[in-house]
Amino acid sequence: MIYKTGVCNFCGTGCGHLLKVNEGAVRGVFASPDHPVSEGRLCVRGWHIHELLTTRERITRALVRKNGVLEEASFDEAVSLAANRLAAFPPEAVAFRASPRASNEDNYLLGKLARAVFGANNIDLASDSGHGNTVDVLLESGGLPVLLASVADIRKAGVILVIGADVTKQNPILGSELHKAARNGARLITLSSRVTQIARLSETHLQSKPGSKKVVLAAMAKALIDEGLEDRAFIGGNTSGFEDFARALEGFDMSRVAGLTGLDPDAIRVAACSLAGAGTAMAVFASGISGLERETIAMAHNLLLAAGKVGREGCGLLPATGICNIAGSWDMGATPRFLPGYTKVGDASAAERIGKLWSAKLNGRSGKTVDELLSASPTPIKALVVADHDEGIIRHAGAIKGLDFVVYVGAFDNPFTDLAHVVLPAASYAETDGTYTNTERRIQLNRKKVEPGPGVLPAWGIWAAIAGKRGVSWPYRTSSDVMEEIAAAVPAYSAVTYGKLEKGFGLQWPCDGRHPEGCPRPGPGELSGRLAFAAVSGEFSAPAPTYDYPFLLTVGTDNYFWHTNNIMKKTHIPKREYNALLLLYPRGLVEISAEDAARIGVRDKRLVNVISASGSMQVAAKISAEVRPGTVYVPYFIGDMITGFLEAHESLMEGGEDSVVPVRIESV
Amino acid sequence: MTMHILPKAGLCRLTDELAERYALYGPVRREVSGEVVFDLVSDPSEISLDAPIPNTPPKSVVFPQAERIMSFSFDRETKSASIERDDLSVSKALVGLRACDLNGLLCLDRFFLGQEYVDEVYLDHRKRMFIVSNTCVHPFPQCFCVCTDSGPAATEGFDLDLTDIGDDYLVLTGSPKGEELVRKLGLAEAPAAQAALRAKAVDASVCLFDDQAKDNKAWISRAVNRITTGFIPYEVWEYIGHQCFECGACSFVCPTCSCFNIEDVAAGEGRTGRMRAWDSCSFEGYSRMAGDHNPRKPVEDRRNKRFFCKLSFSQSKKYLRPGCVGCGRCVRVCPGDIGLPNVVTYIRRETIKQVPSE
Q1: Considering the entire predicted model, what is its pTM?
Q2: Rounded distance, CA A576 to CA A574, Å?
Q3: H helix runs in B243-357, sequence order
Q4: Do A584 and B292 touch (CB under 8 A)?
Q5: Which pLDDT does position A126 carry in this prediction?
Q6: Of A341, A349, A634, B233, which one is least surrounded by beta carbons within 10 A?
């Protein structure tokens, strides 16, 4: 028997697969037909995960930089050096960046290492800003920080609103669920400024101006209320704060909608009535990797709440997490503001409870994200520990070079090691047991399939070794031991055991005393109070071009995230596919509509200067039918674009799809 | 061809005998989920002949998802190259191959071995193989082999063919190797009345398609006609292309798909390994050439190509049969819902519309 059940380690859909293992090595992969989410489907990445898992481009030995050069060292020497040097800095001067592809066990113990051993709260997750807004809005509105339903509810939704996300490229199998729902009669409405594949497959595409999604959603909510279509019974019985929300919308003049959003107000009204009138409806957006502004998420949440489309079958707001364990890592507290289980760092009773579990007194001051710390000038940190990152942090290369001490822990070769003083080899996800939580709160166990290299530990083992060098001895012998402690720390995981996870295809949290087998659809009983309408600003504006900067530039980190991704470069076929654009546009590209290109005299593949009020870059133009006239789109940043342009526009990465920079385009 | 009887209880004698000389492969139900895979077995009793069509296509036995075919190194000082071909030939017995998958294997044989050039790697896998096919006495929900003349029973290409008739199997020999094994096992020849049960079982199975094989139907003849002649409006291919998620799954699970990619990778100790791995015409990079010349750049052109391979007469001439074997796997794995039966439906629907009304 050589087909072994596992979970894909790329995006947050958490598809099941069968890894083909023979003679101690991974030989291939196959889709898993009975998996409840993927049902026999995989995307181009998932179908080639064996290429990644069999690459020889691995970090196999501990390395220590001596006289400017990384040299092989014993694991013991490297770990001692890391532990002692990190301890020499004050806790505010140290930061930890966790990997969103690492397991719950890995990231739980990284959090424990940072907080309990080094007293540091500067721990964040790569892709933080995208998902952070989602968590904030949903938690503040009394819900759970992720979907209050399951992916399976998509099949029961009568109307599905896709907000922005290029979902068929980012979470392809979720995109497949949306498409199949549409083919079975669901009405699919996409709200985005680009013509994405899901927009093409939708019945209605509301091609809005960049940065105006929140206005469109506000207009939809207002149209709903004006037509008297809000679900009064649901609102009265289950929610709070509707009056405030309605009042905030009163100030919105619908005659401004066309100018702000570029959409016909009637089209918006029709979409809103359709959503309200359907028996069931859901909304989907990208979270982590890319994401939306708080206001946009708040509007989406409020719209569904007003329409009574939350908390029952076929309904819900689905933040599609872009990487396999973004959701779980947040659950584990790999963030500067939350301890495990979403209690705040400053919360005294939470700190006491976790502190007791961890036998340490916890630092009560909230930390900052690595992006914030490295963007500050000068940066307040002196030391940085990075686990298995993919690419995003490289935009801070300048600041990182100036740090005193950098540790990199990872499984695969990574140019980031050029910046590290100590490098420690970690097992790949197929070489150790671990759990990963997908976008519908499904905690799935991925069992070890092959042996790691000699002396190579899973990341959690490395964190334990570092703790050990600081005199803190942790008792875990297996990943399952770590999960036992996670169950004690995170209330929503309190009834999780490896034994249970192994019996089927994982369990959806809350998996606790009341829900020993998990909970596919958390309802009012699982929440601490009523669902609230999220606070909104009461202002309705969208970015506008100016005479000097007549184009609105947006960036996409969703569909092309995997393009410049380090692990994707270890594959063959996905790399070939993703490299297609890079070969044609080696200096990067900016997408522009044919009509705009003709008007300003720009030709495909010719260089142009993209100039904003804060900076500029020189890249090639790509004529694209997918870009809204008046908009230009940069799918990914490489090389000079990162240091030159991106640093000057830090906000571009913060607001995800909603970030807009007015620019002008000039032929070179 | 001669017909013999094997009591069901005696199946293990057949598989044990094969296990002496061949590595055994067959349909296996996995423990936790009950999913069926076509896998190498260490214990012949793991093979389940009444399991549904395996999700993993048996073609991976002769055409693995990824394998090293040779390795080489070059010594710059002596300017000498050392090239070693990996020995891939292992005697394999495929037990319980369904007619659709056997027909797929025959298509691969004709593609890899029957054209101008013999693919030595494929030949290494394919030679010294013993094939025991298994008549489908009832269809499975995804089947449509009756639309593609590839089942429910095999007509050629097997060494032995089994048909379940209750307490016994009818064993039909299809080759000298098959006859030799039957002699060795001492199987009694089937009396005429029993031998006739095979044809009856096939007829009964065909009649069950309406009730039991409900997922897919592909009335392919109009599609074959239009794809061969090219009389399909481009909008139809665009409609299909919009739904393609460019994942490659259809090619990977298809019993007749044979496209592959070659990559040279580090093999350790200064050697380079040449890997051969599944590729798919659904990928943009598949047909892209230097300078970005690409005869099939838009996704609709790639989908056009796929169904040309499966259904056009020009391709069928090479396979000596239609390129689709009606196994239904592409339907199950496609994120975009454009498995072959759906595509055939779109083509039929669009070409019906072109008929002018009275």
Answers
A1: 0.95
A2: 5
A3: 249-253, 299-311, 313-319, 329-333, 340-353
A4: yes
A5: 82
A6: A349
